[in-house]
Amino acid sequence: MVYKSDIEIAQSTELMPIVEIAKKAGIDEKYIEMYGKYKAKVDYNILEDLKDKEDGKLILVTAITPTPAGEGKTTTSVGLADALSKLGKKTMVALREPSLGPVFGVKGGAAGGGYAQVVPMEDINLHFTGDIHAIGAANNLLAAMVDNHIYQGNELGLDTRKITWKRCIDMNDRQLRFIVDGLNGRTNGVPREDGFDITVASEVMAILCLSTNIENLKENLRNIVVGYTRDDKPVTAGQLKAEGAMAALLKDTLKPNLVQTLEHTPAFVHGGPFANIAHGCNSIMATRVALKLADYVVTEAGFGADLGAEKFIDIKCRKAGFTPSAVVIVATVRALKHHGGASKNEWAVENLYYLEKGIPNLLKHLENITEKFGLPAVVAINRFPTDSEAELNFIKEKCKELGVNVALSEVWAKGGEGGIELAREVINLVNNGKSNFRFAYDLDMPIKDKVEAIAREIYGADGVDFLPAAVKEIKQLEEKGFMGLPVCMAKTQYSLSDDPKKLGRPQDYKISVRNVKVSAGAGFIVALTGEIMTMPGLSKVPAAESIDVDSTGRISGLF
Would residue 320 show up in a list of annotated catalytic residues for this protein? Predict the structure, then answer.
């Protein structure tokens, strides 16, 4: 068998014109805005036509704690959608957009893999429909208006030492984390400390994904806190009169992007907030339209069930009123062995000892979904040829003890056909699974108690150490009326704890919260733990070194 890379598989597949995909999804052509032959935006006004239609079933795909061994969450999501389509279910998949930072940085493309991809994968991974660029432009327009306001007399009394709004760029660029700008004379602005976030960590990205219409988008933008006065009063984008111009830049960005899978299942790829920093889910708008169009909607949340799934439920579902009908938790034998302490050269060798040591990580995520959030779940083992029957049976038996089935998934190699077993299990859960859906905490709880609830119940920590700065910030936020917001934890994705070196299911530890800030526009409180950063850096050998384009315009190296 000749091995093909993801991009070679994608480029060798004949795509259907996007108008045909729209027709398959039931989208009237009047709502389609073409971006070439294979991409389109869908006008969100379609919801008015669909308002009386019953919603389809929402299937959430999450995973164990990520490892270098990989889990294949996006690949599983796409393959599951194709498998459901093969079984005669009208299905759509709703995913996040990839960020250029990770694409050029650590992992290359992020549109699925093998024979379970969304396409055109080069476009999706690179500029796509320009959404992330528009978000960056809106973010930086607000930054420019902040500094111009100060330069023009600072009527609102912004303290230049307390400006919280940063500029952004969609690239991993550690050099820009902390900068000083406004130098070289009065005509060039007011000197101050500044910095950049990666665009997908911008509050504007979170706002876009959590907005329900254009008016709600403007309201959310208006509420952004850009900094504080000398007596600690918040200054907002609305006070700077910035929300209208920002919304004008984002009016088309709010419209979901329609593409297709390799097997021509309709797909929305829209919005891309980081899950270790922001809330890690695609847009409410795309999910809502998909639920009106399809009987089954497969969506994913970033990283493991401690990060993406928790935020999907406690932030996105709470905001939009969504209730998942079933949850898929993706794992691999080799990743579980990594959690058990196996070195890379041991991943492909049968070893029940390492598997037994690593499986508590999977069981904790499973416990989170079924016991903490009360949702029916299935474990999807993303199967590799090196997985032994003994290892697979061991996982099945451990999951059975919690009353959860395991389905093998071979969608990377076989596409939708390799996901039939998983799809049948999902259909069974939707029809027969018991749901007692609930959130991890109540909104009226104090901020500290919400953070404690997430740390203890979802991460399995013994509690939380709030550093002095965080204690002070929480007190100020509650005094300013922000107590009733959900909490968005900024935490490493590589551990259930806030220490990326603690694999498996850590015991006897506390989460350390160093800072707490408000994202008033997005409508949540951000608690920063450990050493989490809002601007990643490139790796020693970035993926960008392998990406190229030939004389015909054909791109290579996107995995």
Answer: no
DSSP 8-class letter at 394? H
Sign of CA dihedral 365, 371, 372, 373: positive
User: Cα(114)–Cα(359) distance, rounded to whole angstroms?
Assistant: 26
Task: Inform me whether the pLDDT recorded for 552 exceeds 80.
Answer: yes
Helices marked H in 229-306 — which ranges?
243-250, 284-293
* Model confidence, pTM: 0.94
Residue 212 bears catalytic tag? no
Contacts (Cβ under 8 Å, ≥6 apart) of 175: none
Tokens linked to 8: 């070679």
Give the C-alpha separation, 81 to 78, whole Å: 5
Catalytic residue among 104, 322, 412, 466: 412
- CB contact at 8 A, 363 and 505: yes
Nearest to 208 by CA among 155, 134, 299: 134
- pLDDT exceeds 90 at position 334: yes
**Cα 513 to Cα 210, 224, 287, 531, distances in angstroms:** 25, 23, 32, 10
Exactly one of 4, 53, 107, 233 is catalytic; name it: 107
For residue 373, indicate whether it is catalytic: no
List 104, 268, 274, 303, catalytic entry: 303
